[in-house]
């Protein structure tokens, strides 16, 4: 059974419904009902400025700028009101997709990546991009929406066309949010690298261990650390070990072998060599004055 025909509906099937709303009456700006079906994903593209949305079920109100969009999952049928201020035009496009269609499309049982993306979608992690601000439509998104609105063929050709465009829109959304995450990662990555080193420099520390712990490529780790701290990881680890060794060496109750092990050296000879290179004297000589 097909979806009930809505005003402005340009496509409807068992799984997908597309509504293109445009209000040309400038004398008044009536509120328009926005409906989300049960167990459905809703792509809402705001195509006019200063659009307000108020959800009937919780009374939450949002204000959108022109060319912003959201991808929202609704577990139950819900309604919201859309309207503009100052007698401005109200123009938006809503693409509603049934959960089962997305589930079958992603096949999350066969792919961890697909499962994670579907989980993010159902948790509504694709609503805000930066600081509670909805993402902006890209040029490519604009082109796709224009193609959807203007497509004239019906039947199977339209079905295939619409589904292909929706898949492309989803890809663009995932790419946009992935780029956002990647752009935030570097500013925090160097801190995570340094913290891991600071916590583990006293043991046999390998770059491979660090890579596995952080889930980041070894070359990226080296580059990120050098860029922010102007030192290689090897030199930084050596510096931390020597500073610790110098503090411990004055305590004659601790054997030099114990100090070497406590500073991450498996062999006393390697420790003594590094210590003399750093301070110009052997550990024994510094201890005995």
Automatic annotation (TrEMBL):
<dbReference type="GO" id="GO:0003700">
    <property type="term" value="F:DNA-binding transcription factor activity"/>
</dbReference>
<protein>
    <recommendedName>
        <fullName>HTH araC/xylS-type domain-containing protein</fullName>
    </recommendedName>
</protein>
<dbReference type="InterPro" id="IPR018060">
    <property type="entry name" value="HTH_AraC"/>
</dbReference>
<keyword id="KW-0804">Transcription</keyword>
<keyword id="KW-0238">DNA-binding</keyword>
<dbReference type="Pfam" id="PF12833">
    <property type="entry name" value="HTH_18"/>
</dbReference>
<dbReference type="InterPro" id="IPR018062">
    <property type="entry name" value="HTH_AraC-typ_CS"/>
</dbReference>
<keyword id="KW-0805">Transcription regulation</keyword>
<dbReference type="InterPro" id="IPR053142">
    <property type="entry name" value="PchR_regulatory_protein"/>
</dbReference>
<dbReference type="InterPro" id="IPR020449">
    <property type="entry name" value="Tscrpt_reg_AraC-type_HTH"/>
</dbReference>
<dbReference type="InterPro" id="IPR009057">
    <property type="entry name" value="Homeodomain-like_sf"/>
</dbReference>
<dbReference type="GO" id="GO:0043565">
    <property type="term" value="F:sequence-specific DNA binding"/>
</dbReference>
<feature type="domain" description="HTH araC/xylS-type">
    <location>
        <begin position="191"/>
        <end position="289"/>
    </location>
</feature>
């Amino acid at each position: 059974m097909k979806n009930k025909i809505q005003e402005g509906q340009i496509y409807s099937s068992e799984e997908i419904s597309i509504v293109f709303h445009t209000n040309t009456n400038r004398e008044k700006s009536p509120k328009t009902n926005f409906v989300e079906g049960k167990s459905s994903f809703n792509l809402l593209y705001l195509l006019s400025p200063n659009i307000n949305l108020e959800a009937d079920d919780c009374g939450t109100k949002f204000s959108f700028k022109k060319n912003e969009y959201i991808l929202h999952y609704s577990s139950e049928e819900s309604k919201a009101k859309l309207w503009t201020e100052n007698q401005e035009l109200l123009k938006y496009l809503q693409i509603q997709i049934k959960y089962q269609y997305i589930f079958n499309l992603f096949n999350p049982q066969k792919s961890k990546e697909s499962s994670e993306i579907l989980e993010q979608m159902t948790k509504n992690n694709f609503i805000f991009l930066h600081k509670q601000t909805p993402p902006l439509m890209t040029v490519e998104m604009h082109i796709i929406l224009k193609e959807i609105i203007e497509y004239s063929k019906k039947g199977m050709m339209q079905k295939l066309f619409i589904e292909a465009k929706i898949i492309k829109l989803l890809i663009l959304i995932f790419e946009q949010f992935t780029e956002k995450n990647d752009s935030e990662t570097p500013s925090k990555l160097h801190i995570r690298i340094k913290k891991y080193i600071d916590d583990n420099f006293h043991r046999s520390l390998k770059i491979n261990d660090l890579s596995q712990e952080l889930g980041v490529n070894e070359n990226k780790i080296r580059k990120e650390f050098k860029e922010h701290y102007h030192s290689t990881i090897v030199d930084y680890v050596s510096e931390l070990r020597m500073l610790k060794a110098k503090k411990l060496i004055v305590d004659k109750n601790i054997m030099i072998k114990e100090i070497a092990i406590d500073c991450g050296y498996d062999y006393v000879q390697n420790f003594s060599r590094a210590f003399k290179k750093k301070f110009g004297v052997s550990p024994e000589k510094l201890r005995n004055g």
